[in-house]
Amino acid sequence: MAQAGIHSIVGVAVRKWSPARPWLVLGIVLGSLLPDADNLAVAIATVTGGSTEGLHRTFTHSFLTAAAIVIVFQLIGRLSKRPSWSNLGLGLGIGVVLHALLDLLIWFDGVQILWPLPLWVNFWEGVTPPEWFSQLMMPVEMLFFALYFGGLIALAQRQGTDLGRVRSLKVWTAVQTILFLIFLVLVYTLESDFMTIYGAVYLLSLGLAAVITVRMRQTIEATAKNPSGKLSIGGHHGYDF
Questions:
Q1: Contact, 95 vs 147, CB < 8 A?
Q2: Interacting residues of 197 by C-beta distance below 8 A, sequence separation 6+
Q3: Quick one: pLDDT at residue 129?
Q4: Could you report the per-residue pLDDT of 44-94, keeping only the tens digit for each?
Q5: Helices (H) and strands (E) in the chain, counts
Q6: What's the rounded Cα separation, in Å, for the pair 11 and 9?
Q7: DSSP designation for 126
Q8: H or E element: which one contains 107?
Q9: Cβ contacts of residue 211 below 8 Å, gap of 6+?
Q10: H helix or E strand, kind and range, residue 117
Q11: This prediction's pTM
């Protein structure tokens, strides 16, 4: 998988092309994180001794799943008469599609983009990265979480949004950086139990990224100042991330 932090950063970056709709960009960033939650199913299957086949890069990476999410949230929004829910669902769908496309472009495994149809796409078929590179990509996951959090800090300070959360976010950024350094050593030195430890920490970090995304919603969605000096939500003239 491409690092979840990369997906988050891309989700925030596309906000400058997003229309001004409440919860839309929030949905895009959360949707960009959501597909890698399938690693929880992989972890459960591994711990229980079950098969992991068909659990990763399948149902959570499917364009059909993205469409279903959009439809469900559109219904919720219409029934509740709250357009923000419809916007959230549209954002989630866009984020899932962005995630799958990015995986296709910058990683080396296939994606079942039309699950449950047995259609796998792999732009890198026949390319096998060296073992040291595959190992390196695991601790780098933590580094990109740190970069995502650090980017949110810089964005919040630039915009003057969510400033009360910046201090705790700095702590989490430091934690992810330390985890990167620890796992960078362990991945090449720990002969057993590495994947168990790493997998647990990765899933916790992924959940943390989702929580932080929601808590930093104002920062993620605020993209421009109107003439009154107040930040607007969404829009085409966003700050660079």
A1: no
A2: 186, 190
A3: 87
A4: 887 788 877 777 889 999 999 999 999 999 999 999 999 999 999 999 999
A5: 9, 2
A6: 5
A7: T
A8: none
A9: none
A10: none
A11: 0.89
C-beta separation of 122 from 110 below 8 A: yes
Size of the chain, expressed as the number of residues it contains: 241
Contact 232, 222 (CB under 8 A): yes
How far are the Cα atoms of 145, 225, 232 from residue 229, in angstroms, in the given order? 32, 5, 9
- Helical axes 4-13 vs 194-215, angle rounded to 10°: 20
Give residue 223's pLDDT: 64
Report which DSSP code applies to 226: -
Per residue in 11-40, pLDDT (tens digit) is: 999 988 888 899 999 999 999 999 999 888
Question: Rounded distance, CA 241 to CA 239, Å?
Answer: 6
Q: From 212, 221, 213, 200, select the one nearest 168 (Cα to Cα).
A: 212
The gap between the terminal CA atoms of the chain, to the nearest Å, is 22
